[in-house]
Amino acid sequence: MSGRSATRFFDERDEGASGERWLLTYADMITLLLALFIVLFALSTIDKKKYQEFKTGVVQTFAPHSEPIPGGTGLLQQTSLVTHPGTTKTTVPNPLVNLEQRIQAALAQAGVSQDATVTLETRGVVVRLLTDKVFFATYSADLGPVGDRVVDVVGQVASSIPNPVQVEGYTDNQPITGSGPYKTNFELSAARAMTVVDRLAGPDGVAPGRLSGIGYGDTRPVVPNDTPAHQAANRRVDVVLLGSTPPAIGG
User: Fold this and answer.
1) 154: phi then psi, degrees, rounded to nearest 5
2) What's the CA gap between 201 and 116, in Å, rounded?
3) What angle do CA 241, 247, 250 make, to 5 degrees?
């Protein structure tokens, strides 16, 4: 065999071998795709019994008082905050609502519900005393018989709970005239607030450490001081049973 013929023979053999190398790459790709489809198929086929056991274990471990959201997503929710179809909604009890109801019932039983209003605010339960009904005179800080009864009813309820009690005095915008002991609306409002504080701490037995009094004068009217009726509404004392327990001293 001549040298030229031998060279042509080996060139043709090498060309045939390299021309079939793409088959190896193609075969590898097919194999990988087959493996991928097998994995996907395996993931799509779930043993319902094992899945239920797994779900139950997760619920009991991380949220023993919760249940999965309907629909099979496996997410958790608190049963006390969610309404399911055909069930009654369960809400978290608000202790302030119960406190408001207790005070209203106690005022009604004592026959003085018309002499005070009870409202629920974000900060707590507010018992509003209109000063024209509970104090002796316009510029007086002494409680009258009705005022004593109203404050005593509030004190009986307040003495049975640990919440702090804040007493706030307010006046209308009319300047104080005459030779009385109080020269300004701030003095009068503060004196009336402290009179209620003393009543709560004394005969009513509320712990003094839970009580505080403040006078706002005419700085926070609930309505404009443009009529005698509005001015009367602004002359008030609010007994606020706050919605949190008092902080520890020095804490």
Assistant:
1) -65, -40
2) 20
3) 145
Distance, CA of 58 to CA of 140 (rounded, Å): 67
Tokens of 48: 């319902």
Q: Where would I find the H helices in 65-174? A: 95-110, 131-134, 145-158
CATH topology of domain 95-242: 60s Ribosomal Protein L30; Chain: A; (3.30.1330)
State both tokens at 65.
């008082």
Query: Where does CATH 3.30.1330.60 sit in the chain?
Result: 95-242
Instruction: Look up residue 20 and give its two tokens.
Output: 């079939």
Rounded (10°) angle between helices 145-158 and 185-201: 60
Record the pTM. Answer: 0.61
Q: Which of 106, 229, 121 is nearest to 168 (CA)?
A: 121
Token output for 7 = 């060279």
d(CA 169, CA 188): 8
* Tens digit of each residue's pLDDT (9 = 90 or more) over 46-97: 666 666 666 666 555 555 444 444 444 443 344 344 444 554 544 457 889 9
Average pLDDT per run of 10 along the chain, which is 251 residues long?
52 58 79 81 66 62 49 42 48 80 95 94 93 82 92 96 96 87 94 96 96 97 95 93 64 37
Task: List pLDDT tens digits, range 197-211.
Answer: 999 999 999 999 999
Cβ atoms of 129 and 237 within 8 Å: the answer is yes
Q: Which residues contact 246 (CB under 8 A, 6 or more apart)?
A: 162, 163, 164, 209, 210
For the chain, how are helix, strand and coil distributed in percent, rounded to 5? 50, 15, 35
